Amino acid sequence: MAAVYSGISFKLKSKTTSWEDKLKLAHFAWISHQCVLPNKEQVLLDWARQSLIAFYKKKLELKEDIVERLWIYIDNILHSRRLQNLLKNGKTINLQISLVKIINERVAEFSLSESQRSTCAMLSCCQGILSTPALAVIYTARQELLVALLSQLCRLACRQPGGAEVAQLFEVIHLALGHYLLIQQQQVNPRRAFAEVTGHLLQPCLVLRHLLSGGTWTQGQLRQALSRDVRSQIEAMLRAGAFQPELLSSYKEELLDQQQGDTKIGAMKSLLAPMDTVIARLVDPGYCEPSLRAAVIASSVALLYKLFLDSYVKEGNQLLCFQVLPRLFGCLRISQLQEEHVSALTTSDWTSELLVVEQLLTSVANNNIYNIAADRIRHGEAQFHFYRRVAELLINHSQASVPAWFRCLKALMSLNHLILEPDLDDLLASAWIDAEVTDLRTRKAQEALIHTLFQTYGKLRQVPRLFEEILGVLCRPAAEALRQPVLASGPSRVLRECLLELPPSQILDTWSLVLEKFQSLVLPYLRGDADMALKSLSLSSLLHCIMFNMRSLDSSTPVPIIRRMQRTMDRMLQELVKPLLDLLLEPPRPELEPWLRKVSDSALLLSYTWAQVDTMLSINCSQYQSASGALTDAVVEIPGLPSLLPGVETHHWKKIEKFTAQFDSLSKYCLEQLYLQKMKRTLVETSFQSEEALCALRRDAAYILGSGRESLNQRTTASWDGQVGTVSTLTYPVAHWHLVVSNLTIVISYLCPNDVRSLASVLLRTLPMSKAQEGSAEEEPSITLEKISSAVLHSPLFPEMQPLHSAFLLCLTEGCASVLRSGAQGDPSLLGQQLPWLFEKEHTIVTLWENRFAKVGPEGVEPKGEIAQNLLSLVKSDFPVQLGGEQLESILGFLEVISALQLDSLLAPYHVHYFLLLLSTAVSKLGAPCPCPLSLRCLMTCYRLLGYLQRGKSARSVLKILYVSEIFEITLTSLFKASSRFSVDTDDPSWLEFLQVIGTFLEQLLQMLIQTKLSLVLNFGKIVAFLRTLYTEATSGKQVETQNPRGQQLLLVSLTKLCQVLGPLVQERKQQQEPSGALSALLPEAVLQTGAVLSLCWARGAQGRRLPSALISSVSALLEADVGQRSTHRTDVSLATGERLPSHTAFYQDVYSQLLSGLPALAGDPQSFQAAMRFLTLFLLAPELHPKKDAVFISMFHSVRKVLADPAVSGQAIQDLEPHLGALFTQMLEVGTTEDFRMVMQYVLQGLDVSNMWKADVQLQNREACQEQPVPLAVVGPILDVLAALLRQGEATISNPHHVSLAFSILLTVPLDHLKPAEYGSVFLRVHNVLFSILQCHPKVMLKAIPSFLNCFNRLVFSVMHEGRQKDKGSTDDLSVVLECARLVERMYSHIAARAEEFTVFFPFMVAQYVTEVQKVTLYPAVKGLLQEGIYLILDLCIEPDVQFLRVSLQPGVRDIFKELYNDYAKYHKAKHEGERRYAA
Asked: What CA–CA distance (Å, rounded) separates 1462 from 1468?
């Protein structure tokens, strides 16, 4: 056979053999073991290589398909396991330079043409070569080949290919860069490395890095990790090539003009101007597409400067690092801007270039390149002049829509405020006062710049100088109407922070400056000039901010400051406020109305500001004399405001009020503030309880509320930033509502009932009725009507404002009732008699309940019947209220508002009214167009709220008009009818949640019945009779075929809750020997009905993949009630239920077997698992139900084992299930036999061998993986708890020492590193408990297991040292956990010392291990103190030979630690105890 196959090589070279046959033969020869050729691998590889070379050199004509298959053939050889094994075994395969050159040529060809033929195969070949070290040597040995390949690969990637070859291409680039970086590290010729990088790699790599940074390829095309790695490699390659340490002298020669005379660098003399070389390659126009060129240069400038700094920045090189900056900055287009070319740059162009400038300036600041003094003294302010040029460029070409523009200016200000100071006025104009900024990100950048401005000038104590420039800009001629408000929320917040830090003298200087500018530049020219009116408003806003945010004076303020403040306040009132108010008294003319409105805004803003500041100064500073004087009773009688602004007549205020009332404006808002200020001044007076004062307070409160009443009816959606200066016609309603709500505690007491109802109506109308109205978290923080009203609704003070709260409750009920009335069908007068709470006025019906309860008294009982009969008859026939989709949406909105109220604290009339209203909503008929989820949501909300009501303090009031049995019947009758119309599956999560809500409500009803003890037998009897009727209908033959399964589930929930409540009640009465005959007779019937319905539902539920938790809970309730009644009357019940008991027993056993087999599947559902644990616990405690052929204890234990061992059950799930498993396990141990207990112990120590679990976990073998909390960690706690509990049983129970010794191997594998503090403390405590249990309860084991014990204990000691070490960063908040663990270590040392005879031999070794480990760390003093106290107890037991042994045997460094420890021990501990013994009896 060998002879036959040996002719293959001749056939491959034969011209007569077709290429199809040649390829088949070559493939067969490679894979066949029977083909024997000398050096077969090399022969076949050479044949394919020579064929391709002949084709590409035009010596051979081949079809494209054959060429591609030849590449694929080579690729298959290169990637074959056979070749890898041959190379691993030392065989040499020669690729030949010619093949590598062909590959390089093909890559170059692909990078220039659109052809994609053979690309994938050729790239795969390249990848195969580079990924195999034995083959890659052909590239690494010929460095120029690798450089050429890398250059062409990058150029190919820069063409932005798509498809499958993208990932493959970047894998090859990644490999090639990796090899080149290794070559660079070994390169001894820096000139060659620089030439290779700048000549061949710089340009394509910069383009490729730019494309990768811009996210050109999606995650599906290119993995982010690979993209990140390639970018990092490119940066490393550029730094190692262009910015080598050996080139530092060349850069100094070029950039600093320093002629080096050292002959050692003669080899570098010919390498002139490296920075010029790099920049020339960077700005070369031909290496990328014109559309990309500017962006590539911009991103590359920042990168190159960063790499230069990374390589050369150090002390003494600051000037060198700066000299690179202007050259790189000159590459940007914005550095060469001419006025006529400004429009050529788009906003995106400015953004990209300004981002680079920001990075450059940030690098300068972060690396301390600019030293102001050194630059001025040594370098002739070279840096300063460059930064000034940049600043002039930025200010002359304002880009207020670009956030980076603001950040660049901020960076320059941070470097040196003198850089921007010559252009400070233009900066303030373009970046703040005249800037049109709308985008949130841009506003944030603007705010940061303004903050830096004020912060800088504040530190320099030159804030008045800054304000002088601000005022100059504000007062210069400009189109004021186009300007945005000067003090929006951002600038205002910044200015407020600055003013709070300034001393009073600077505040007064600034204040006086603004007053002077106002008086000299604005006030004389204000009359009739609209622009001047707007300037006056801007200056007024500035004055308001200054006055409101200065630190208030007090009695400790120096007298000169107080006097100056007094003069400034008087001057402002007389020379500014009054003249402005006088302008408002002129007869209004239509053409002057806009001007007059702005003047009134300015005048009233300053009036309100002056009044507020004057009041605060009067209160806080006793030496300040207010110009308005004390408020007297006579003044209160005047309805105007002369008391706040002295010298202004009352009739003048009337004119001003009349004018401002016409418009929603800032002036109206300020007038409201003045009235509010008047109310506060009145309340401060001791005589405010007088009738005149009360009348004045009522008038003022009515004015404040009435002023903006009409504006609130507009339902505006505008938002307000909270700044007075930004109040406008659009934002006035929000500002007015904010003013009213913020001062409700003052105003509400003085409003008439109609005003309170109006206030409550506005509050309800402006609440957000859906989640969409609440806004997103990403929006800029702002104030809206909805946010204000929502804050009131959720405020804890809302219920305390009783008038408003009551009015709001009535408005809310009226809103719900109006929706229900809109769906009413039938005679309105008849319905009004049957459902008066829907058709009567809300205050009338509440009064009706008040009268009823007043007649019967707090504990009286109202005869019931009328309301219940009406509701029952309406529900049984066809409830006359039908709700459609829109009506349901409206009702849900109101229900959401009701949910936010504190329903548990309502007064009895409101409680009853809301209960009937919610019950009416719940029993309403839902129209056909209503979607089922919406209907279910509405019903769930209603019954949740009803349950919440019945937990309130007035819950008994409902029972004065309705029996519990009647509520029960009304609810279930309505639900049974509604359930037949629902189009929802019985296992749908929303339906199951609905059943849970209904069950909770019914249980609350029954519990309330028991608590009130009102006609227990009567109510329970009616409930059982009603359920009997439903049960008969559900199980009758006529109904079975068409039975509603949802109705069966509702019936089951009702019966289950009845059994859960009635069963314990009967047992409790029996125990207390109270008469319970009637109730006892009802329980068997309830159990019988529950069992029958449950059997039907179980048969349907068992068909699903997982049993619902409600079904399992129902079985548990039935079992508990069944066992309870049989245990209470064993003899009577056995006679009465002789026929049904076997069937129930079989049913319980069937449920038991299903739950045991499906327990792992239930572990994913905590509710179902908890219900299953409850049933198994009850079943375990009922031995008469246990199958005779099966040991229940063993079966349950093995089922729990399956849950813990199931890999599909997550660690978090096991942690959640831990309490339920623990409860079952506790019951099992209580009823189990000794044999059962031994079996459990054996499985815990062997079958559940935790060490095997951890050893099998690959993650735990990697220390790094421990930081990500491996899954078994959640199992550690419960297992260690069980282990400690078992070990505490002692040697009488665990007789085999080997079983105890297994615990040590478990403890050695418990992870103690890389845990969170809480987890560390928990695991540490449990390990300590296991060790303590062994030490105390197993003395025989300790005789032979002391080394194992000490190994485990030392792990605890060392972990405490590790966690208690002093860290470079981080807080000591978690130190308390470590201290607690250190105390446990100290206690364990004391327990060991108490058993000195057993441990005598080991004491010196314990000390040696302690000092060896402690010398590796620096402990916190508290931790060190606790550990030392423990080791001192061991040193007490060390004899002198032990101490000498330690001094001789320890290593030198450790020996010093021991010496220090022993000296402290002798000085403090030993001396103390010797003194105690000396004085002991």
From this structure: 10
Q: What's the farthest any 2 CA atoms get from each other in the chain?
A: 132
How far apart CA 536 and CA 599 sit, in angstroms, is 7
Query: pTM to 2 decimals?
Result: 0.75
Residues 104, 155: Cα–Cα separation, whole Å: 12
Give the whole-angstrom CA distance, residue 243 versus residue 193: 10
Residue with tokens 């006793």: 622
For 1364, list phi and psi in degrees, rounded to 5.
Answer: -95, 10
Cα-based torsion angle of the residue sequence 71, 76, 77, 82 in order, rounded to the nearest 10 degrees = 180
Angle, CA 745 vertex, CA 742 and CA 751 arms, to 5°: 105
Q: Which residues pair with 926 in a beta bridge?
A: 883
| Contact status, residue 872 vs residue 970, Cβ threshold 8 Å | yes
pLDDT score recorded for residue 1190 = 72
The helix or strand, by DSSP H or E, that contains position 1218, with its residue range, turns out to be helix 1211-1231
Q: What CA–CA distance (Å, rounded) separates 659 from 587?
A: 11
Element (H, E) at 1457: helix 1452-1464
Three-class SS string for 873-936? HHHHHCCCEEECHHHHHHHHHHHHHHHHCCHHHCCHHHHHHHHHHHHHHHHCEECCCCCHHHHH
Interior angle at CA 476, CA 475 and CA 482, nearest 5 = 90
> Quick one: angle between helices 1421-1435 and 1339-1363, nearest 10?
150
Residue type, 1198: H
In whole angstroms, give the CA distance from residue 1358 to residue 285.
64
Residue 1106's pLDDT is 57
Q: Tell me the two tokens of residue 109.
A: 């060809």
Which runs of consecutive H residues, i.e. helices, occur in 485-592?
489-501, 504-517, 530-548, 559-572, 578-583
Contact yes or no for 1267/1254 (Cβ under 8 A): no
**The residue type at 345:** L
Q: Determine which helix (DSSP H) or strand (DSSP E) holds 882, and give its type and residue range.
A: strand 882-883
Helix boundaries (H) for 766-801: 785-793
Q: What counts of helices (H) and strands (E) characterise the chain? A: 74, 2
Question: What backbone phi and psi angles, to 5 degrees, belong to 925?
Answer: -80, 130
Question: Is residue 1413 classed exposed, middle or buried when 0-12, 13-18 and 19+ CB atoms within 10 A define those classes?
Answer: middle
How do beta strands 925-926 and 882-883 pair? parallel
CA distance 704 to 709: 9
Q: What is the dihedral of CA 360, 363, 367, 369, to 10 degrees?
A: 10
Q: Taking residues 123-152, report their average pLDDT.
A: 89
Cβ atoms of residues 825 and 883 within 8 Å: no
Dist CA 1143 CA 1091 (whole Å): 9
pLDDT of 1103 reads 55
**What are 882's strand-pairing partners?**
925
Residue range 205-214, pLDDT digits in tens: 999 999 888 8
Residue 1418 burial (CB count, 10 A): 12
- Nearest by Cα to 369 from 315, 423, 422, 413: 315
Name beta bridge partners: 883: 926
The closest of 464, 473, 472, 471 to 434, measured between CA atoms, is 473
Q: Read off φ and ψ for residue 824, nearest 5 degrees.
A: -70, 140
Q: What is the dihedral of CA 706, 711, 717, 720, to 10 degrees?
A: -70
Look at residue 1038 and tell me whether its pLDDT is greater than 60.
no
- SS3 of residue 866 by DSSP: helix
Mean pLDDT, range 1218-1226, rounded to an integer: 80
Please report the DSSP string for 612-631 in residue order.
Answer: HHHHHHHHH-TT---TT---
What the block records as the tokens of 45 is 């590889």
| Averaged confidence pLDDT in the chain | 82
What's the CA gap between 970 and 835, in Å, rounded?
Answer: 14
SS (H, E, C) 17-30: CCHHHHHHHHHHHH
- Count of residues in the chain: 1481
Angle formed at CA 537 by CA 535 and CA 540, multiple of 5 degrees: 110
